[in-house]
Fold this sequence. Notes:
Elements (H helix, E strand, L loop, with lengths): L2 H20 L2 H21 L6 H38 L5 E4 L5 E4 L1
Antiparallel strand pairs: 1-2
Amino acid sequence: xxxxxxxxxxAGQTALIAALDAGDVGxxxxxxxxxxxxxxxxxxxxxxxxxxxxRSRVDYALKQSDAARMRVNYLSDRTxxxxxxxxxxxxxxxxxxxxxxxxYAALA
Length: 108
């Protein structure tokens, strides 16, 4: 793992976070592809003894991952709430949404 590889991951994460914040679906898809390629490059390079600066950049990359995860969870929750409100406006009290378990579930 080199510093350039870590910086590519961080750049991908930054682009993904910006796209999530902007709500730009095309940018989200592009940033996701770029980030996946950067992570795959790091994965293939294997582990190496990292210096202090590399470790600090990896720590930052982990924090960026957590920030992106929180945004995705927030946006998923908002989407579920919108679906529930639209269902309620239609006169139905139960909305069918896709759950994390991979099954459809009726929510009360």
